[in-house]
Amino acid sequence: MDKIATASINSFGNSPNADVPPDDPILEIPLSDLQGLLSEMVSTYNLMAEMIKDAGILRGRDLARLTESHSRALRVEKNPITKMLLLNAYIRQLLTKIRDALKARPAEGGKIVQVCTKIAARAIQIIDYIKVIARDDPKRKEIALDSSHTRVLFSGAGGEPVSRKETIRAMRRAEKLWPALKCGHRPNDGRQTMRLTISQSDMGISPEFGYCDSWQRSRASIALSL
C-alpha cells in the first residue's frame, strides 16, 4: 500500500486582529508550534482517510472529492485557529463515517464482507467458476479456461465490457491465489491466447474465500493538503 502523503504547511497568513476582553489571558506561542500542531492534525486526517478508503467505507472517487473540498476550504482560510477548528470538524466527519460503517457490520456469526480490488474480485470469480466446472464434470482430467471465455464470464456477471489486458491481469492474479493453476499461452496458437489450466487431481487443494465486495482503488493519492 502506498504510504500516506504528508501535507506541508507553507504559511498561515496574517491573523486578523481579534477583540480580546481585557480580563482574558493571552497566551503567546511560536508560530512554528502552531504549524507543527496543524501538521499533526493533517496527518491524523490523512490516516483516517486512508483507512476509510482501504475499508471500502467510501468509494475512491467520493472520498477524493470530499478530501479535495476540505483542502480548498483550509487553503482559503488564513486564521490558524479557524483552520484548526475546521480541521477538527472534518476529522469528526470522518469518525462519523467510520462509526456508521461499524454499526452496519453484520452481527457476529453473520456473513463477513471482504473488500478487495476489482482485479482480485475477478480472480476469485475465475477460481469459483473453475470449481463449478470440476464439480459438474468430475471425470475431466484437465480443466482449461482461455481469455476469450473468461471475458464472456465477466460480461455475463455484470454486463461491463472487460478488456483483454484486464482479463489477463485477473487470470494471472488467479494463478497467484491458487498456485495449482497454470497461466500460459495456448499451445500451437499463433495468436498466443492466454489460458488457465489445472488437473483434476489438484482440485482438492483449492483456496477458499469469503464473500467479496469489489471496488476499484483510485490511482491518485487521497490526502488532505493545505
Provide a descriptive summary of the structure in words.
The chain is mostly helical and 226 residues long. The protein has 2 domains: 31-103; 114-210, Winged helix-like DNA-binding domain superfamily/Winged helix DNA-binding domain (Arc Repressor Mutant, subunit A, Orthogonal Bundle). 49% of the residues lie in helices and 9% in strands. It is built from 6 helices and 5 strands. It has helices at residues 31-55, 60-76, 80-103, 118-136, 147-158, 164-177, and strands at residues 114-116, 142-146, 182-185, 194-199, 212-214. It has a 3-stranded antiparallel beta sheet with strand order 2-4-3. It has a two-stranded parallel ribbon with strand order 1-5. The two termini are 23 Å apart.
